C-alpha cells in the first residue's frame, strides 16, 4: 500500500488505473470498496487496477483493511485528493479511465469532480439522488463531456437504477398491440431488525427542500424538450394514500429523484428513438440496441413508498412534513441535521446502521403497469383495460444494493466502452438499458420477476 500526493507524477501520462473510488472511506464508499474487491484481478473481470482516493490516507487505509477482512489488504494505491482542490482532482482524473464518486452531498461537493472528468475525458459514475445537481451538471458540462469523450452518468445506485430497469422490464411485457399508459413503482423496505437509512440520503432530502426554487428556476431557463407519445389520457392523481390489495401495501407518493431520472431517459429516447449510438459499435451491437429500444414502451411513471400497515404510511407522511416544513429555513435545517433520529422517527441516524442491521434488511419494488390491450383503440377508451405487475427484489438498499449496482455499471463500462456513447451527461437508463446490466444484477443478488398479467374493468 502506498500514499501518493497529487504532485508525485506528471499529468501527461496515460491512465494508470481502470478505476478510482473517490470518497472511499465514507459510509457508502467503504461498501463500494468491499464490492469492487470481489472483481479485482478475477480472470473474467475487466478490473485489473484500482486505487482509492480521498482527503485522509489513514482513513482510506483503515477502509481497505475493513473491506479486505478476513484477508490481508491487497497492495492498492491510496491517493490524496480533495474536492476543493482543482489541481488534485484534475490530476486524479488524468490517472484513471473511470472515477466512482461516493462523496456527497453532491449538491455541495460533486461539481468539481464532474468538471475535472469533463475536462480530462475521464468517465464518471456516481450514486447521486439529487435532481437539481444532475440536471445542472447536464446543463453545464454535457457539451464539454461530448467534446472530450467523458461519459458522465449519475444515479448509478438505489433506487434510480432499479426504477429505470424496473420500468423497462415492465414495459417490455406489453407486447404489441398492447401498450402501457402508466407504470407506478411501490417501494417496500423490509428488515428482521430495525430499518436504518443512509444519513447522506436524509441530508440530500433536507438540502433538496432548501434549494427547490433553484431547481424550478433551472428548469424554466432550459428550452423545452421532446415529450414521449403515451397512448391514452393523462392518469388521474388518485387518493393521497393508495391501498394496493394484491401486493399487500398501503402507499403514499414519494417525491424522489426516480421519476425525474426516468423522464430524462424517456426524453432522450424520444429524441433518439433507437437509443444513443456507441463509440465504435459492431453491426451486431447496433442491431441489439435497436431491438432493445423498440421493445421498450413509454409510460407515465411515478414512485410511491409502501408499508404493510396504514400506521407505517402515516409515519412516512410525518417525516415528510418535518423535512418539508423545517427544511425551508436555516434554523429548521440545523435542527433536522442535528437531530436526524428524532425528526425521521428513528429511520436515520448519523452513525448509520450496524452491520447486522445492514445484513438483515432488504427491499421489494413492485411495478404496477396499467394500459391498453390494443393501443390502436386506446384513444377511444377512457380507462385502461389491462394490468401487468412486475417486481424487483434485492438486499439492503444503501450499503449493499447501491454498491452492487455501481460496481456492475463500472464493469460494463470498462468491458464494453466501445458500445457506449462517446461522451456526455446522461441518466443511467439511456446508457445501460441495452447492455447486460439487468443480467449482471441478477447474478449478484437482485432479481426481476413477472408477477401477473390480467385484464381489468375498462
UniProtKB/TrEMBL annotation:
It comes from Populus euphratica. This is Probable mitochondrial saccharopine dehydrogenase-like oxidoreductase At5g39410. It holds the Pfam family Sacchrp_dh_NADP. GO terms for cellular component: lipid droplet; mitochondrion; plasma membrane. It comes from the Eukaryota. One of its GO terms (biological process) is glycolipid biosynthetic process. SUPFAM superfamilies: NAD(P)-binding Rossmann-fold domains. Residues 20-153 form the Saccharopine dehydrogenase NADP binding domain. The lineage of its organism: Eukaryota, Viridiplantae, Streptophyta, Embryophyta, Tracheophyta. Belongs to the saccharopine dehydrogenase family.
Amino acid at each position: 500500500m502506498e500514499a501518493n500526493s497529487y504532485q508525485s507524477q506528471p499529468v501527461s501520462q496515460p491512465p494508470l488505473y481502470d478505476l478510482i473510488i473517490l470518497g472511499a472511506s465514507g459510509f457508502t464508499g467503504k461498501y463500494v470498496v468491499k464490492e469492487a474487491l470481489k472483481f479485482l484481478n478475477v480472470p473474467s473481470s475487466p478490473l485489473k487496477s484500482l486505487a482509492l482516493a480521498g482527503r485522509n490516507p489513514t482513513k482510506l487505509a483503515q477502509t481497505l483493511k475493513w473491506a479486505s477482512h478476513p484477508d490481508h489488504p491487497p497492495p492498492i494505491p491510496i491517493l490524496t485528493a480533495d474536492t476543493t482542490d482543482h489541481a488534485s482532482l484534475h490530476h486524479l482524473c488524468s490517472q484513471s479511465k473511470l472515477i466512482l464518486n461516493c462523496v456527497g452531498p453532491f449538491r455541495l461537493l460533486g461539481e468539481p469532480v464532474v468538471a475535472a472528468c469533463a475536462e480530462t475525458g475521464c468517465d464518471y459514475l456516481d450514486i447521486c439522488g439529487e435532481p437539481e445537481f444532475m440536471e445542472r451538471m447536464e446543463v453545464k458540462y454535457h457539451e464539454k463531456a461530448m467534446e472530450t469523450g467523458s461519459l458522465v452518468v449519475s444515479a448509478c445506485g438505489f433506487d434510480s437504477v432499479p426504477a429505470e430497469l424496473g420500468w423497462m422490464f415492465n414495459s417490455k411485457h406489453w407486447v404489441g398491440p398492447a401498450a402501457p399508459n402508466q407504470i407506478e413503482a411501490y417501494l417496500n423496505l423490509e428488515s428482521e431488525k430495525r430499518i436504518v437509512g443512509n444519513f447522506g440520503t436524509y441530508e440530500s432530502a433536507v438540502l433538496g427542500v432548501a434549494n427547490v426554487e433553484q431547481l424550478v428556476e433551472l428548469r424554466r431557463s432550459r428550452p423545452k424538450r421532446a415529450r414521449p407519445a403515451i397512448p391514452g389520457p393523462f392518469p388521474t392523481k388518485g387518493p393521497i394514500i393508495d391501498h394496493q390489495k394484491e401486493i399487500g401495501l398501503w402507499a403514499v407518493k414519494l417525491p424522489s429523484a426516480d421519476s425525474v431520472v426516468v423522464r430524462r431517459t424517456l426524453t432522450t429516447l424520444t429524441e433518439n428513438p433507437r437509443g444513443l449510438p456507441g463509440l465504435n459499435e459492431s453491426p451486431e451491437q447496433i442491431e441489439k440496441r435497436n431491438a432493445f429500444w423498440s421493445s421498450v414502451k413509454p409510460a407515465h411513471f411515478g414512485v410511491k413508498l409502501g408499508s404493510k400497515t396504514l400506521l407505517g404510511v402515516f409515519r412516512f407522511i410525518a417525516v415528510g412534513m418535518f423535512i418539508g416544513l423545517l427544511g425551508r429555513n436555516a434554523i429548521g435545517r440545523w435542527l433536522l441535521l442535528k437531530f436526524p433520529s428524532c425528526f425521521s422517527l428513528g429511520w436515520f441516524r448519523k452513525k448509520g446502521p450496524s452491520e447486522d442491521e445492514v445484513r438483515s434488511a432488504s427491499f421489494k419494488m413492485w411495478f404496477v403497469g396499467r394500459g391498453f390491450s390494443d393501443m390502436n383503440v386506446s384513444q377511444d377508451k377512457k380507462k385502461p383495460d389491462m394490468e401487468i405487475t412486475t417486481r424487483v427484489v434485492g438486499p439492503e438498499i444503501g450499503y449493499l444494493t447501491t454498491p452492487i449496482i455501481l460496481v456492475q455499471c463500472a464493469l460494463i463500462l470498462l468491458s464494453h466502452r466501445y458500445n457506449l456513447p462517446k461522451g456526455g451527461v446522461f441518466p443511467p437508463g439511456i446508457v445501460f438499458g441495452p447492455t447486460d446490466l439487468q443480467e449482471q444484477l441478477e447474478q449478484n443478488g437482485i432479481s426481476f420477476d413477472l408477477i401477473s398479467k390480467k385484464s381489468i374493468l375498462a
